[in-house]
Design brief:
Elements (H helix, E strand, L loop, with lengths): L1 H12 L9 H8 L8 H16 L9 H20 L4 H14 L3 H11 L5 H29 L2 H22 L11 H14 L1 H28 L8 H11 L5 H10 L3 H21 L4 H31 L6 H50 L3
Helix pairs in contact: 1-6, 1-7, 1-8, 3-5, 3-15, 4-5, 4-8, 6-7, 7-8, 7-11, 7-12, 7-14, 10-14, 10-15, 11-14, 12-14, 13-14, 13-15
């Protein structure tokens, strides 16, 4: 079941990131201005935030398996709409809908926590989140390779078919989970504000991950533009290989989860945030020839992904230690808050790249983990 959860969450969340390395061809095909190209990623993330706030809490109210099925089938329809979009407004609306439906992954993750034993919950969540992070990281190279071989439209058609397949497999394999009915939907939503006010660990962990995910979005939204630009002159297949190397950063997830189970959350957090800052400091400080600069970017991508994944799992381990009856709402709030950081990062990154080139992007990215470290210093 852990393998099923990991693969399913990875395939679902990948839908949010197929467009990340394709913002160049998509914006050209739909007539989107270069300075606004970041909206392709930003609107998907905004949709995800909306889904986290208004759909994921339903995991504490309605039968989880049915909720997952409906969300995934809606996502498949939105992916098909994106594949045939020829105008910016149609594609952006489809991107918003893809983000909303893909929150099914965040109904699956608390499901895994619910089925696992308390003493191994961090390790289990770490394994599931490894699958989720592999989906995020593999989405970029897969999208680039498919776009190179066929077109950018093809990846959305392929993903629609896969998403519908995942929906049917989960419908068949997941056990029924009917939460105890204790409140109505609007009471559920209003309780989230109360949870946010009265759960300091949630606020702190969300702040750390919002900064880390903002840095992650800045880097991955803009690095394909830099790699395919006049300095590196790399093809979409080359971008795919670059993104594929970054996938190795996902190995940090189960390690971080295991350390959190051992009570080492604080030191793991410090390491993760430092890795995030180092990922942007290295390319800012090291300038040489094109080959060395590319090698530095590869190293930066790996340590950034390691920092983001380690911090994410450490935060979720802390949140899932709280009572089971509020777990879906806590997870929805946690993910929504840090995805807001991601949306800010992707929109800022594209604007900075258009206005101040790659150096501006690196400075912007560095600011995010430095803010997180400043907050961490008050813990």
């Amino acid at each position: 079941m852990v393998w099923l959860f990991a693969i399913a969450t990875g395939l679902i969340v990948a839908n949010l990131y197929y467009a990340q390395t394709l913002i160049g061809p998509i914006s050209r095909a739909t007539g989107l201005e270069p300075g606004a190209a970041g909206l392709i990623v930003t609107l998907t993330q905004i949709g995800y935030v909306l889904g986290l706030l208004f759909i994921v809490p339903l995991g504490d109210l309605v039968e989880n398996r049915r909720l997952i099925l409906i969300a995934l089938l809606a996502t498949a329809v939105a992916l098909l709409a994106a594949s045939v979009a020829s105008s910016a407004i149609v594609f952006l609306l489809a991107a918003l809908a893809i983000g909303i439906g893909s929150v099914a992954a965040q109904v699956v993750v608390p499901f895994a926590a619910h089925l696992s034993r308390p003493e191994t919950r961090g390790k289990t969540v770490g394994k599931v989140m490894s699958g989720l992070l592999m989906g995020i990281m593999l989405a970029r190279p897969v999208a680039s390779l498919v776009a190179d071989a066929l077109s950018w439209h093809a990846i959305f058609v392929l993903s629609a078919v896969i998403t519908a397949g995942v929906a049917l497999v989960l419908r068949a394999r997941l056990p029924e989970r009917q939460p105890q009915a204790g409140m109505h939907y609007f009471e559920l939503l209003s309780s989230m504000w109360h949870l946010l006010k009265t759960t300091p660990i949630l606020r702190r962990r969300a702040a750390y991950q919002a900064c880390m995910f903002g840095a992650f979005s800045v880097f991955w939204t803009c690095v394909s533009l830099e790699l395919t630009g006049p300095y590196f002159q790399i093809s979409q297949s080359g971008v795919a290989i670059f993104a594929l190397v970054g996938v190795t950063g996902a190995i940090a997830s189960p390690i971080a989860g295991h350390r959190a189970d051992q009570g080492k959350s604080r030191s793991t957090t410090a390491i993760a945030l430092t890795l995030g800052a180092l990922a942007f400091a290295l390319p800012l400080l090291i300038h040489s020839n094109r080959l060395i600069d590319l090698g530095v970017l590869v190293v930066a991508s790996i340590i950034l992904d390691m920092g983001v994944s380690a911090n994410l799992v450490t935060g979720q381990r802390a949140i899932f230690a709280l009572p089971a009856e509020i777990r879906s709402r806590l997870n929805g709030l946690y993910m929504a808050l840090f995805f807001m950081g991601g949306a800010i990062g992707s929109s800022l990154g594209a604007w900075m790249f258009a206005a101040h080139d790659w150096t501006g992007v690196l400075c912007t990215g560095l600011a995010f983990p430095l803010i997180a470290l400043a907050i961490f210093a008050t813990e």
